[in-house]
Amino acid sequence: MQILLLNGPNLNLLGKREPDIYGKEDFETFLDSLKNKYPQVNLHYFQSNIEGEIINKIQEVGFHYDGIILNAAAYTHTSVGIGDAIKAITTPVVEVHISNTFSRESFRHQSYIAPNAAGIIVGFGLKSYELALLSLLK
Hints:
Blueprint lengths: L1 E6 L11 H4 L4 H11 L4 E6 L3 H11 L5 E5 L8 H9 L4 E5 L21 E4 L4 H11 L1
Parallel strand pairs: 1-2, 1-3, 3-4, 4-5
């Protein structure tokens, strides 16, 4: 089974950026623990601050991977293009967010990803990624 964990802008700063919201653990450490916990899954990781690179990656894997776990970060609320890319592929996408976006600023309540996602997991910290993975393993 091949799963892509795909992170959007500023998530390369996890562990440093607003630790009160996003936690103190960097993503690479978390990813290593996830790979160790689920050795039967071939987990791939990609992060970009650039919208077009995220769309390119979705199109690259979106017809032959078993799932995509996507935290589009701020692009969730602004990118029709990422939403359209997800609509165009056959691989299921689970939208995740580390924080509870519905308890934050009102502009974070809108998602252009959600209408085309298999599901959404918000507010469980980095555990959101594992919950998404479990949903894809069902």
